[in-house]
Design a protein that fits this description.
The complex is a heterotrimer of chains A (620), B (165) and C (103). Chain A is mainly alpha-helical. Chain A has 26 helices and four strands. In chain A, 75% of the residues lie in helices and 2% in strands. Chain B has 165 residues and is mainly α. Chain B is 75% helix and 0% strand. Chain B is built from six helices and no strands. Classes of the chains: A mainly alpha (620), B mainly alpha (165), C mainly alpha (103). Chains in contact: A-B, A-C, B-C.
Chain lengths: 620, 165, 103
């Protein structure tokens, strides 16, 4: 396989972005559908090339394809080379990104139909796909960081896609700023590593960690810095607050960026630098604790949200926590396996939410209900995805979740119990949404205003494909390919762990059924019983308030910013004004010497000559 | 011979200094210009004493003939004769500076041990100057050409400056 | 009493100082120009004296004097033209009132 293939995978979506931005938007305004076709074509081509890469990687010894490095820049005796990594991890991620991106673009044809920003939307989507692929393929931290910020930028642009809505603009800003807090740690870690080792190359860093040249506190701090970037990007506690707000963006954007790919970039980053993490027990335990805590923390909030996209957002945070937990307990393969499966079923869930919204015009599950008959395809795919995320055998979610649980049981029993509880919560909140949306009677007022119709084929088709993938992706030997162990199709059921988790998931589903469909139990009375907990969950643990009122208003605005303002006003401005004032005063005095009269100048010249001659006579 | 030269030097030197002082001290600007002519003329005499015959002639032609006439023209064109030539505010500093400058130069001249050549050949200088000016090898052909260009530029510049618009 | 190099040099110095005083102290621009001519002539005397007493074979001293004369002629022509131009626009040649170089 020529090395240009890897480059082409990245550049094809970029060309699509360039063509849409500089040809279609200015010159072909009245043919916006061209943008969609170009995007689909370029990403489809990327997908085909990614499959080629995958096949080559599978065939390669050790699942690594050696790729040439290119000299990028030379500063003094520091040479920075860039290149791409083609190993099993990158190949899997390539497939995830290109396939989900392709399906989302097809879906967007229907969902974004008639939007005035249609071309802009596809331009940003192309740029995002390009950045994400670059992030996946980068073999060098600096290069990776460029694409890391690139996806952050695209996320900002796409969350704020309907920027005329103030909430969207605000959510975009929030996402950008909150992730930036994590990125700061990431960048600091990159520079710290460079200062200590003199290289940005990930492979070299791994070698250094392996031979012990990079270890101890240095490695731990660097790993935690990198992880802070991952926490920001993957919306882990405590930097998770941006992701629910990011749901202001178009739903396909949520499906692609905020469910399947970009938020998984943090997990991918930890996986990419896994050998570094693996040499620092402290870093590993940090990852595991943050991941495990986030998983249950976000799941509890997801229990009480009424906006379907918000439930899915907290579900995403929770599932990302699972992946982090999987990585933190040493299960690189299962963590990425879960990322792989999650990308499909979570993208599908978002598409389902978008499809529902297409029909009802709302995301509030209290105003839905009874959509099963009107939207059979949406219901069927949503059901498959919900079963999959709940971890029901033999759907994909079961395989990876079971793997993570097994690793957690082996290494961190306390976190294992958190994860187990999360299994129950996950099943419950997903089926709560399912029953409220599709079961019962329609509660959204008269259906004349919004005739409840199934979405067009262009939206249903990618959903159906994703549903198939949500079923079978767990059967693929991804875990083994990534260096983990694989289970037999039926023998997996034999382990007690799997049975317990299945039981918990079934209980969750049953509870949801009891509460929201069969109504054996009263939701109201349950809410009364657990009133403090309900308030805690529905106010999202008051974290937004804490950040807003305490960190931002008190510490930043009243403290730091006020101090900076004072310093700026008094010291910096004072110095500048002082210099300026002093110069003016001096000038006012000294300009008296400038009479403008030639003879005065001549006098001065001759005084100078005399002085020079005097110097010669005295000292010469 | 020596005595003759000495006598003529002292007379000429006295005349030069007196006429130069008259130039800078007289209030009547036209008289000052006439004394300037006298000053130039006596300097030509100094050149003769120094046996620089060609320069003496050139001095008379250029300074007395051309420059002095130009200056008298300028005086007439600017019609400033009635206001005379008063001294400015810088009279005292200028006087001090002039005296100090003179003292310094006299000190330098007197204290320096000049390598004077005893045997002074007596010869006509015109052809020697011509050779120095026009010989290509170690002569001054290039500066001469540049000087010609300078004169041309000065003429054009003067015309442009005083042209009525 | 033999007249030597020093006599000519001191004469030159006196003449130069007189010119310097005139150039700095007089208010009439034409007189300033005249004073500058006196200074140039003082230099010429020194040049010729050096030629005569120190390097009589080389003609450099005299050639320099010729160049000074050329430059002086050019300078007078341009200087007088400037004075006349200023006089036309400002009706004066008083150096103390010509202070446009001031800030």
């Amino acid at each position: 396989m020529p090395p240009e293939v890897a480059l082409a995978i990245i550049l094809l979506p970029f060309f699509s972005f360039v063509i849409i931005s500089f040809v279609i938007r200015p010159f072909l305004k009245n043919r916006p559908q061209l943008s969609g076709y170009i995007t689909i074509a370029s990403i489809g081509a990327s997908l085909l090339l990614s499959m080629w890469v995958l096949i080559e990687v599978i065939k390669a010894p050790g699942h690594v394809l050696p790729m040439p490095d290119y000299q990028w820049l030379v500063v003094g005796d520091i040479a920075i080379s860039i290149g791409v990594t083609l190993d099993s991890l990158a190949a899997v991620m390539l497939i995830v990104v290109t396939s989900v991106s392709l399906l989302v673009q097809i879906y967007s044809q229907g969902y974004m139909h008639g939007d005035p920003g249609y071309s802009r939307y596809f331009a940003f989507m192309s740029l995002f796909t390009c950045s994400m692929l670059g992030l996946v393929l980068a073999d060098n931290l600096l290069f990776l960081y460029v694409f890391w910020e690139g996806v952050g930028l695209c996320s900002y642009l796409l969350i704020g896609f309907w920027f005329h809505k103030p909430e969207a603009a605000r959510a975009a800003t929030k996402a950008f700023v909150v992730t930036r807090i994590g990125d700061f740690g990431f960048l600091a870690a990159i520079l710290f590593l460079f200062a200590k080792t003199g290289t940005f190359d990930i492979g070299e860093l791994h070698q250094l960690a392996l031979i012990g040249a990079l270890g101890g506190t240095v490695l731990t701090w660097a790993a935690i810095g990198v992880f802070s970037g991952a926490v920001g990007k993957s919306a882990q506690f405590p930097l998770h607050t941006w992701l629910p707000d990011a749901m202001e963006g178009p739903t396909p954007v949520s499906a692609l960026i905020h469910a399947a790919t970009m938020v998984a970039a943090g997990v991918y980053l930890v996986a990419r630098l896994f050998p570094m993490f693996a040499h620092s027990p402290q870093a590993m335990i940090t990852v595991a604790i943050i991941g495990g805590f986030t998983a249950i923390f976000a799941a509890t909030i997801g229990l009480v949200m009424n906006d379907i996209k918000w439930v899915l957002a907290y579900s995403t945070i929770s599932q990302l926590g699972y992946m982090m937990l999987g990585l933190g307990v040493g299960g690189l393969a299962v963590g990425i396996f879960h990322l792989f499966n999650h990308a499909f079923f979570k993208a599908l869930l978002f598409m389902g939410a978008g499809s529902v919204n297409h029909a009802t015009g709302t995301f509030d599950i209290r105003e839905m209900g009874g959509l099963r008959k009107a939207m059979p395809w949406t219901f069927a795919t949503f059901l498959i995805a919900s079963l999959s995320i709940a971890g029901i055998w033999p759907l994909s979610g079961f395989w990876s979740k079971e793997g993570i649980l097994a690793h957690a049981w082996a290494h961190q029993p306390i976190l294992f119990f958190l994860a187990m509880a999360t299994v129950f919560l996950t099943a419950f909140y997903m089926f709560r949404v399912l029953f409220l949306t599709f079961g019962g009677e329609y509660r959204g007022g008269s259906s004349d205003a919004h005739p409840l119709r199934e979405s067009p084929l262009v939206m249903i088709l990618p959903m159906a494909l994703l549903a198939i993938l949500s079923v079978i992706s767990g059967w693929l030997p991804i875990s083994g390919f990534l260096g983990g162990e694989s289970h037999g199709f039926f023998s997996a059921l034999a382990s007690p762990l799997a049975l317990v988790s299945l039981l918990l998931a079934a209980l969750g589903i049953l509870l949801a059924y009891a509460l929201y469909s069969a109504r054996w139990l009263s939701v109201e009375s349950l809410r009364q019983t657990f009133a403090p907990l309900h308030t805690l969950f529905s106010r999202k643990y008051w974290l937004d308030e804490l950040y807003e009122r305490v960190f931002v208003m008190r510490i930043l605005v009243d403290g730091l910013f006020a101090a900076c303002h004072w310093f700026d006003d008094q010291v910096i401005d004072g110095a500048v004004n002082g210099i300026a004032g002093g110069t003016v005063t001096a000038g006012r005095v000294i300009r008296r010497l400038q009479t403008g009269q030639l003879q005065a100048y001549g006098l001065a010249i001759f005084i100078g000559i005399l002085a020079i001659v005097a110097c010669f006579l005295i000292f010469g | 011979m020596e005595t003759g030269i000495a006598i003529s030097f002292w007379i000429l030197a006295a005349l030069i200094i007196a006429s130069a002082l008259a130039v800078v001290l007289l209030r009547n600007i036209f008289h000052a210009a006439l004394f300037l002519v006298l000053c130039f003329f006596t300097i030509a005499g100094i050149f003769v004493i120094l046996s620089a015959d060609f320069l003496a002639a050139a001095q008379v032609l250029i300074y007395v003939g051309a420059i002095a006439v130009l200056i008298i023209f300028a005086i007439m064109l600017t019609r400033e004769t009635q206001r005379g030539s008063p001294s400015g505010r810088l009279r005292l500093p200028a006087l001090m500076l002039g005296l100090l400058f003179l003292a310094t130069m006299v000190f330098v001249v007197v204290s320096t041990d000049w390598q004077v050549i005893k045997e002074i050949p007596d010869q006509a200088t015109t052809s020697a100057i011509a050779q120095a000016l026009f010989s290509g090898e170690e002569g001054f052909v290039l500066p001469l050409e540049i000087a010609a260009a300078l004169l041309l530029a000065a003429i054009i510049g003067a015309i442009v400056l005083v042209r009525e618009r | 009493m033999v007249v030597g190099l020093e006599h000519f040099l001191i004469l030159s110095a006196i003449l130069f100082s007189i010119g310097l005083y005139g150039a700095l102290a007089k208010r009439n621009a034409v007189v300033i120009l005249m004073s500058i001519e006196i200074m140039l002539n003082a230099v010429n005397i020194a040049m010729v004296a050096f030629w005569r007493y120190i390097a009589p074979v080389l003609m450099t001293g005299q050639v320099f004097v010729i160049f000074i004369m050329v430059v002086a002629a050019a300078e007078v022509a341009v200087g007088l033209a400037i004075i006349i131009a200023i006089y036309r626009s400002r009706e004066t040649v008083d150096a103390e009132q010509i202070d446009l170089m001031k800030w």
